[in-house]
Write a structure and sequence with these properties.
Radius of gyration: 17 Å
Order of helices and strands: HHHHHHH
Strand content: under 5%
Distance between the termini: 18 Å
Mean pLDDT: 81
Structural class: mainly alpha
Number of strands: 0
Largest sheet: none
Amino acid sequence: MAVIDAGISAATGGTCLGTAGVLYVADRLPWINRFTTKIKSPQVQVLLVLTAAIGLVSTPLGRLLNEATTTVDGFVESFAGKWTGFGIMFAVALAALLWLISDFMTGPNTRTLLLAAFTPTLAVMIPGQLGELAAGGLGFIATQVGSLAMWLMGG
């Protein structure tokens, strides 16, 4: 079952990333631009990139990132303190999330797309149980979005 969930998450991520790319290009074409402005294309692009990033980090790659970060944190812990790695990554992930929300509310731009792409990755890179919990939660979200898309298409 885990392989199927990972496949759904990866497919959801790839589909959303491809759709966001098409909308990004369509925004820059003068003859189709008038249609994309009606659907609030920049906001939709950010949501699609965020869903794509969530889908891709919720695969076994996300767990591997968390394990690697936890290992590095264990090494750094011996000379920098017990909570240093956790504190730094938690602060960076939280700052990225707050910045993403702020940018999304004030009007998305290229920085917002980059934040949407990297915020889930930063959340998974929090060492220890919280990073594992983030990976599992993001995986659940990606699977539900993929299942919803399949249901909407009649699958």
